[in-house]
Amino acid sequence: MQIMPVSELRNHYAAVEEAVATGGPVFLTKNGYGSMVVMNMEQYESLTGNVEAMLDAADRQAAFTTMRYSHDEVFGALRGELHRADAV
Predict the structure, then answer these.
(1) Residues 5, 30: contact at Cβ < 8 Å?
(2) CA atoms of 26 and 22, how far apart (whole Å)
(3) What is the predicted pLDDT for the residue at 19?
């Protein structure tokens, strides 16, 4: 895990960019506390995937059916998918 003060982003952008490119996300701190995470586009895409498209599809399906899923069903399925993706 790479942790840097947020001032590094302002003062040494190239170094932060290189750290992201070679070592994954960089956690930036402000006054000793977590402030933000910087990651490359590929890392971001792997985290978010096609979430927006899937939510849009779910909204369209919900408009045409009365079938609903519980919180446990939805998030249990999502957790299962995440664990399968981590195993690969």
Answers:
(1) yes
(2) 10
(3) 93
The span from the CA of 47 to the CA of 25, in Å, is 12
Q: For 11, list phi and psi in degrees, rounded to 5.
A: -90, -25
CB atoms near residue 6 (< 10 Å) = 16
Average pLDDT rounded to a whole number, residues 71-88: 85
Q: Report which DSSP code applies to 24.
A: S
Strands 2-5 and 26-30: parallel
Mean pLDDT of the chain: 89
- CB contact at 8 A, 26 and 37: yes
Tokens (6 digits) for 52: 């927006």
Q: Could you tell me which of 31, 23, 25, 24 has the C-alpha nearest to residue 7?
A: 31
pLDDT category at 81 given cuts 50, 70, 90 is confident
